[in-house]
């Protein structure tokens, strides 16, 4: 940066300082002066002349321009007084190139804010932060401000220096790399956001205006099905915030009150942006005059109340406007969130004039999931303001970086090089919580039986996922029936969910409760929600009460209270309380009990033992059994449900892992009773291990089996293997109370008492199944004391087994194999229960009614009809129906009896056993000109693929 300097000195022309007297200011005397001169190296391009308004106080007849600020009695200006001289000097750039001009002060007596030059406002000094750029031949009028408050009468010789340079002193040196902030905000949360486009409605790639992008794995999708979204290529990061001059585009609400401000830095980023654009103070209007969903006043968390208060504590005024045209003249910025009603031409013109006059505009969009149609209205504003970005009518999804759901992505993909000041860490919102402390909170809203909104004493709003329990989903949310033992009736379970919500409202609504936490679970879970216990004013704990009432099931995590809660659930189930009134485990249909033709192993390790019935295609042993010790070792957690098609996985119905594992249990033990899954040693939190919560599909498989005198096989979770309460390993007489204990890779060591309990169980005849994993070979060491105490010859090695040719969905770390020792272990590869040749359900497409009168989504609605043409009941849970595009519907809790039909309507309505509703409100599904009906079962197998003309 080249610098040139102009010196302006008080009293420099006469060789004396500026005298401060006691009399009022007058212009009659010239005894005390301000001398303004141009430094030699600046003479060629800058000139100073008297200003038009107060130029009479100057004299430019000599070599230097002189300003007279003495009193008529020669005693100088008065003390404890402020003086302003507008337009006293005019500065002109006589060069052919633009230049920046600003001033500094040098004085032992005067502070920086007591003696300044200014341009428009005496309160805004012409400092480096407010440097003025002068084009070739341009001029600027400069005033003088003097504040003598606290200055004693005397003579002083302070100096003002006008500096000039080719580059903005408050900008970046093009020859230097900008340094990122030393401490940045954490990641930000993007709840239901869209993406940004450029002004031509193409992917936005101009990083000079993009501070934040989604993480690289994120994708964008046309969720409303209107085919009006622009897709982003896989190799382009998706922008979610843009700053073009004084206009900001944010693709979601970003600072809604239900944002997890403690964990994420959304509010800090936005306030940093306010400070950069507004200078640390100003009036910000929040528009509520165009049908906006996001208000300033409390709106169940869908509001900007918390951020508005945060801005106000940081020197801003944040208030509502219901009349843009009338109120903008008194504001410095305006916030516009997804307007469902468009702006008039007059309002657009007012906004444009507001920006031209230095006003700041913040535009907040949101995803197209519910087809709010606000995107076009925002883009009209962006077009009027002539900015280089537009909003996309889409939704950003990220399967890897989120707070529990792909539509709530998180990102730390920050452009700190171009925007370092926007990511500086600062004091933000949220309450810093301690796991060991309790907090008095008010319940402000009850979402359902296991989720409430609360407010802390300081006004911070948060959401509590009531820990250790799970109540049925309500409304349109899909429920996983597999989690609820013995329940196959989806609509009935929905009704139970409504009852659970009513129970929670009666117990918790508007109550002051004591919030506490479980150290084993941590503070927060999915979606960033707090995981808490709620103690009522009478000392009772809601978490326990709702289980006792039968309105909730126990959530099989590592909760310290899990086993005690499990016993409460057993009592409720035995008495048919609440949701358990509709449970019948013995009535669960047999499913997936087919011959074992192929197996898959998630991230397995090689095993060894006296008998090795299964190996990889390359020969590494993957299963070892020791029937003498009642122990088996399996290389990977093959019942982990994330591979299920219904959970977004590739589908594993073709792999006989369920009958195989059950046959292994039967091979090493003759015990009967439930299968118990350990979840108390970090398994629930580890992706490579399984608790009972991770094996819901295997639970439903076991319920469909009826070996010997047993009506079904139960599956239960346990946290503490050595103590009551909880599922028992041994009965009072010392015989096994369970058929098997499944122990997957423990990230936390078992206690010595637990190791003994496992060994005693095996010695009594119970099966112990060890599931390994190569994902954490250090954790495999926690098996060693157990294996030693069991006295078994099986071993889980730390050698990872992979296969680039034979694997699941192209993942070499998930090998598949047919390398079975069927000669020596034929019983391991058959169905666990012998097949009934007369049994079987089969789904057929009866008809497609695609062309109805009027609107296809109104009455009569378009629909498709299916029939079970088989000989036995057919459970459609997890079956998905789709057309030739990406539109998809999933059946939930519906069993068709032989010969029964179900009609799937495309629009909205109330589900019954014979009628189901897709829930479409935008575009219809079945094209009148022809389409394809595709049905995939819960194993990922296509059962219907029929086209029509």
UniProtKB/TrEMBL annotation:
Gene3D superfamilies: 2.40.50.90, Lamin Tail domain (2.60.40.1260). This is Nuclease. It comes from Halorubrum ezzemoulense. SMART domains: SNc (SM00318). Residues 164-178 have a biased composition (Acidic residues). GO terms for molecular function: nuclease activity; nucleic acid binding. InterPro entries: DUF1102, Lamin_tail_dom, Lamin_tail_dom_sf, SNase_OB-fold_sf, Staphylococal_nuclease_OB-fold, Thermonucl_AS. Residues 830-949 form the LTD domain.
């Amino acid at each position: 940066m080249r610098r040139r300097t102009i010196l302006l000195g008080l009293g420099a022309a006469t060789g004396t300082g500026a005298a401060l007297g006691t009399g009022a200011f007058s212009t009659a005397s010239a005894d005390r002066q301000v001398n303004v001169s141009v430094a030699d190296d600046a003479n060629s391009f800058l000139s100073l002349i008297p200003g038009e308004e107060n130029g009479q106080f100057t004299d430019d007849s000599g070599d230097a321009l002189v300003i007279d600020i003495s009193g008529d009695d020669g005693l100088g200006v008065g003390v404890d007084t402020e003086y302003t001289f507008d337009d006293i000097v005019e500065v002109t750039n006589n060069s052919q190139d633009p230049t920046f001009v600003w001033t500094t002060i040098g004085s032992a007596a005067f502070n920086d804010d007591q003696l300044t030059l200014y341009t428009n406002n005496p309160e805004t000094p012409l400092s480096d932060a407010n440097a003025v750029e002068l084009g070739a031949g341009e001029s600027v009028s400069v005033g003088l401000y003097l504040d003598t408050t606290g200055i004693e009468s005397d003579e002083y010789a302070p100096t003002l220096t006008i500096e000039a340079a080719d580059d903005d002193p408050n900008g970046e040196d093009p020859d230097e790399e900008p340094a990122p902030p030393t401490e940045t905000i954490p990641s930000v949360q993007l709840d239901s956001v869209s993406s940004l486009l450029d002004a031509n409605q193409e992917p936005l790639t101009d990083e000079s205006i993009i501070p934040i992008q989604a993480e690289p794995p994120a994708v964008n999708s046309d969720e409303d099905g209107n085919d009006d979204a622009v897709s982003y290529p896989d190799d382009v990061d998706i922008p979610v915030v843009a700053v073009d001059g004084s206009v900001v585009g944010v693709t979601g609400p970003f600072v809604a009150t239900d944002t997890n401000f403690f964990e994420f830095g959304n509010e800090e980023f936005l306030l940093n942006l306010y400070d950069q654009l507004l200078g640390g103070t100003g009036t910000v209007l929040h528009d509520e005059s165009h049908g906006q969903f996001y208000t300033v006043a409390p709106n169940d968390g869908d509001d900007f109340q918390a951020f508005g208060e945060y801005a106000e504590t940081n020197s801003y005024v944040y208030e509502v406007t219901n009349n843009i045209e009338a109120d903008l003249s008194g504001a410095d910025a305006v916030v516009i969130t997804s307007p469902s009603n468009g702006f008039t031409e007059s309002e657009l013109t007012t906004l444009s004039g507001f920006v031209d006059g230095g006003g700041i505009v913040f535009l907040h969009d949101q995803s197209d999931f519910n087809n709010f149609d606000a995107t076009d209205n925002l883009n009209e504003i962006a077009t009027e303001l002539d900015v280089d970005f537009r909003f996309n009518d889409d939704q950003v999804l990220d399967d890897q970086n989120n707070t529990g759901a792909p539509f709530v992505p998180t990102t730390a993909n920050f452009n700190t090089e171009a925007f370092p000041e926007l990511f500086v860490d600062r004091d933000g919102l949220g309450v810093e919580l301690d796991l060991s402390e309790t907090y008095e909170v008010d319940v402000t809203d009850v979402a359902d039986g296991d989720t409430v909104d609360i407010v802390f004493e300081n006004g911070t709003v948060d959401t509590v996922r009531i820990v250790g329990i799970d109540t049925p989903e309500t409304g349109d949310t899909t429920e996983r029936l597999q989690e609820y033992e013995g329940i196959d009736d989806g609509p009935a379970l929905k009704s139970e969910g409504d009852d659970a919500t009513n129970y929670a409202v009666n117990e918790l609504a508007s109550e002051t409760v004591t919030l506490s936490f479980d150290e084993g679970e941590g503070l927060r879970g999915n979606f960033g929600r707090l995981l808490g216990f709620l103690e009522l004013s009478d000392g009772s704990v809601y978490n326990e009460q709702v289980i006792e009432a039968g309105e909730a099931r126990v959530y099989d995590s590592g909760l310290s209270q899990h086993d005690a809660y499990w016993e409460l659930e057993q009592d409720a189930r035995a008495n048919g309380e609440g949701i358990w009134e509709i449970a019948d485990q013995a009535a669960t249909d047999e499913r997936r009990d087919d011959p074992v033709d192929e197996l898959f192993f998630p991230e397995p390790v090689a095993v060894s033992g006296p008998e090795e019935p299964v190996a990889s295609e390359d020969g590494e042993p993957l299963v070892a059994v020791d029937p003498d010790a009642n122990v088996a070792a399996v290389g990977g957690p093959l019942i982990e449900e994330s591979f299920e098609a219904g959970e977004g996985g590739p589908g594993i119905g073709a792999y006989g892992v369920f009958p195989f594992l059950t046959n292994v249990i039967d091979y090493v033990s003759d015990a009967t009773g439930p299968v118990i899954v350990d979840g108390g040693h970090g398994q629930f939190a580890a992706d490579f291990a399984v608790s009972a919560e991770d094996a819901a599909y295997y639970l439903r498989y076991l319920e469909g089996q009826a070996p010997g005198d047993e009506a079904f096989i139960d599956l239960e979770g346990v946290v503490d293997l050595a103590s009551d309460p909880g599922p028992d390993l041994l009965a009072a007489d010392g015989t096994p109370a369970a058929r098997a204990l499944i122990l997957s890779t423990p990230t936390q060591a078992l206690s010595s008492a637990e190791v003994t309990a496992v060994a005693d169980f095996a010695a009594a005849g119970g099966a112990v199944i060890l599931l390994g994993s190569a994902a954490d070979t250090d954790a495999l060491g926690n098996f060693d004391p157990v294996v030693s105490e069991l006295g078994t010859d099986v071993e889980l090695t730390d050698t990872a087994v992979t296969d680039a040719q034979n694997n699941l969905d192209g993942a070499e770390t998930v090998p598949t194999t047919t390398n079975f020792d069927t000669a020596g272990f034929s019983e391991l590869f058959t169905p666990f229960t012998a097949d009934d040749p007369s049994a079987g359900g089969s789904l057929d497409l009866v008809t497609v009614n695609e062309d109805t009168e009027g609107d296809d989504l109104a009455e009569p609605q378009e629909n498709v009809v299916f029939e079970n043409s088989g000989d036995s009941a057919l459970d459609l849970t997890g079956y998905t129906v789709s057309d030739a595009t990406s539109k998809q519907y999933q059946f939930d809790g519906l069993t068709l009896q032989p010969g029964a039909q179900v009609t799937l309507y495309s629009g909205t309505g109330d589900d019954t056993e014979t009628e189901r509703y897709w829930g479409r409100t935008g575009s219809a599904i079945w094209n009148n000109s022809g389409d394809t009906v595709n049905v995939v079962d819960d194993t990922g197998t296509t059962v219907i693929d029929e086209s029509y003309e």
